[in-house]
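in:
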């Protein structure tokens, strides 16, 4: 018997005994709490499902159910949506990002919660300890505060003359309270003035860009808040209109930003399936160590540099893992 077929048999044999404890069904039901929209998260949800399929869990074979709810970029809807999933007695709640994970954690202390990824699990209060989370929550984390500082460093290295940089801030995401102090310390070390400019949603982005330019900003740092990620093309296009170079994640660089530095979110989505499998087999979330990202990618967008009229230093390009022409 091939290894994949054997794995499917073993998974199938385990599911009736381990899964469905909450819902009362022999088919495990996953509740997925999305902070943005189904369409904007489609490729990541497919990556998650791909990871599940590799372990033998397939919606097409009807041996798993995914019950997804979406806040449509309104974080204030997350608590009620989390409560809905709890009421439906799902076996596991899957989330991404800090706001959604905190909403799920406040809604239940019994149903296992797996965050597909979170910027800083301990600092945000999602878990008390990475090695032994202890409560009903576990998942993947990637230390976003340090990534934000690195983006500022890359921006400064690429444009040595830069003295004033703006950072988009979304106050309803608690993780900003963790990332901003680290970013300010990095700015002080680099002798860069950092300006915080609020933008809660798409409707406030244009005014935010105008404010940045009016305050003399020479570049922008963007945190991968779920709403910002969903609207990354719009953010980059507005910034380019004001001739402001952007440093953010690799997906922002693909959307036209000058610099990208971060993790592979799609790979983290696939890895989240491992947590689901272990929990459905009887493991307790609090005993499953949070997985920490170890691979980070630096991306430079040469096309963006040309539009901005910036000659990127050869050393900066040599440091790149990927260059977008």
């Amino acid at each position: 018997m091939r290894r994949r077929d054997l794995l499917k048999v073993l998974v199938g044999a385990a599911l009736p005994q381990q899964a469905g404890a909450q819902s009362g069904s022999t088919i495990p039901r996953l509740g997925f709490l999305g902070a943005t929209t189904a369409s904007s998260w489609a490729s990541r949800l497919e990556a998650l499902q791909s990871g599940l399929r590799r372990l033998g869990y397939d919606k097409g074979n009807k041996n798993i159910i995914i019950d997804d709810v979406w806040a449509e970029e309104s974080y204030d809807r997350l608590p009620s949506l989390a409560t809905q999933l709890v009421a439906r007695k799902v076996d596991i709640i899957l989330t991404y990002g800090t706001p959604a994970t905190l909403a799920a954690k406040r809604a239940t202390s019994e149903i296992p919660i797996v965050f597909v990824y979170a910027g800083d699990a301990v600092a945000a209060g999602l878990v008390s300890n990475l090695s032994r989370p202890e409560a009903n929550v576990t998942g993947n984390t990637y230390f976003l505060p340090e990534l934000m500082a690195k983006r500022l460093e890359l921006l400064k290295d690429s444009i040595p003359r830069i003295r004033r940089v703006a950072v988009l801030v979304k106050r309803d995401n608690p993780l900003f309270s963790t990332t901003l102090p680290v970013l300010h310390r990095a700015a002080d070390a680099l002798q860069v003035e950092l300006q915080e400019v609020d933008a809660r949603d798409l409707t406030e982005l244009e005014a935010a860009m105008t404010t940045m330019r009016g305050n003399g900003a020479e570049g922008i740092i963007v945190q991968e808040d779920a709403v910002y990620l969903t609207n990354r093309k719009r953010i980059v296009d507005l910034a380019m209109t004001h001739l402001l170079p952007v440093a953010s994640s690799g997906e922002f660089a693909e959307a036209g930003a000058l610099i990208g530095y971060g993790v592979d979110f799609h790979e983290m989505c696939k890895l989240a399936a491992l947590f689901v499998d272990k929990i459905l087999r009887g493991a307790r979330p609090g005993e499953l160590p949070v997985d920490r990202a170890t691979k980070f990618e630096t991306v430079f967008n040469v096309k963006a540099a040309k539009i901005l009229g910036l000659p990127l230093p050869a050393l900066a390009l040599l440091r790149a893992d990927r260059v977008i022409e």
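note: DSSP finds 13 helices and 13 strands in the chain.
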